Amino acid sequence: MEPASLENLSVLYHSENYIVVNKHWDIRIDSKMWYEKQTVQSQLKHHFPELADPGTYYGFRFCHQLDFSTSGALCVALNKAAAGHAYRCFKERLVTKAYLALVRGTVAEERMTLDFAIGKNTTEGKTHMMCIEGAEGCENPKPSQTELTVLEYGAYEGDPVTKVLLQPLTGRTHQLRVHCSAIHHPIVGDYTYSLRTDNTPYRMMLHAYFLHIPQEKEPIQVIAPDPFLPSLDSKWAPQRCVNPLDDLLKNILTEPQAEMKESQEEPETVHRRSSSPVESEEQKAQCQRWLCEWNLD
To answer: Basic and acidic residues: which segments have biased composition (predicted)?
Structure first.
């Protein structure tokens, strides 16, 4: 539970094209604020100064985003071509991601699909938040789905909690946090979506555990080790295992292979699948930034 520092950078994967790091909790990926010295970008510059590209604003091309409070696997492209390949995988929704979380209370259903459209909260004092369709001040909600699977039941500091695996099927801002809050099982330590009441834990218990980017020439598949273990945090006390994480991981690992086989046998199905999703405004803006900065040819 060491705090973030320039020296404290864990590398999960490193090639001439990519670095995947295990992002620390409570650290921004990058920042334009002069007073924010601790960022993933500054960590990378500290450890790999020779890899920083002066032609980019931050020096490194982050392939996707993780919230300030979220830890786990974060992929960074080291050149324009690599960025383009990753960009296409994210744009076509080919990337597989899975998160671990501790949520408040006892989740009754072992498996469920959370299907709540998410929009911007325009309520005064909550404009930094997202909300589900039907909530007061919810603007421009877009379809959002998350698969939730219960891993373990237990307690955190004596209060009932559930350890879950979350697989986002869409990529909205704060999606996992909003969806867990919507079913009345907010993520432990989520200060924002507990309306500033859950401030005792040392961090928000959300971790990007698995990342698979199925590129043809360099497929990337990484696991950021589970931080929610009693050996690492004595306040977490598991009591009953429902679905072993290793078993679920095996299923996740075989899914991309099955999809690849399916794409070879039924190309029309994949074509319709890749062309149908609607991008969020945030994704469109990010794609435009990528396209403006990098030549993808």
So the answer is: 258-271
If one counts the domains in the chain, the total is 1
Could you tell me the pTM of the whole model? 0.85
Strands 206-213 and 71-77: parallel
Q: Each residue of 108-162: pLDDT tens digit?
A: 999 999 999 999 999 989 999 999 999 999 999 999 999 999 999 999 999 999 9
Helix (H, G, I), strand (E, B) or coil at 23: strand
Catalytic residue among 67, 226, 233, 297: 67
Say if 162 falls within a structural domain.
Answer: yes
Q: Is 83 helix (H, G, I), strand (E, B) or coil?
A: helix
Its domain, for residue 115, covers: 10-293
**Residue 49 CA to chain centroid, in angstroms?**
26
In a domain, residue 3? The reply is no
State which H helix or E strand residue 10 sits in: strand 10-14
In a domain, 247, yes or no: yes
User: For residue range 166-192, what is the model confidence (pLDDT) as tens digits?
Assistant: 999 998 999 999 999 999 999 999 999
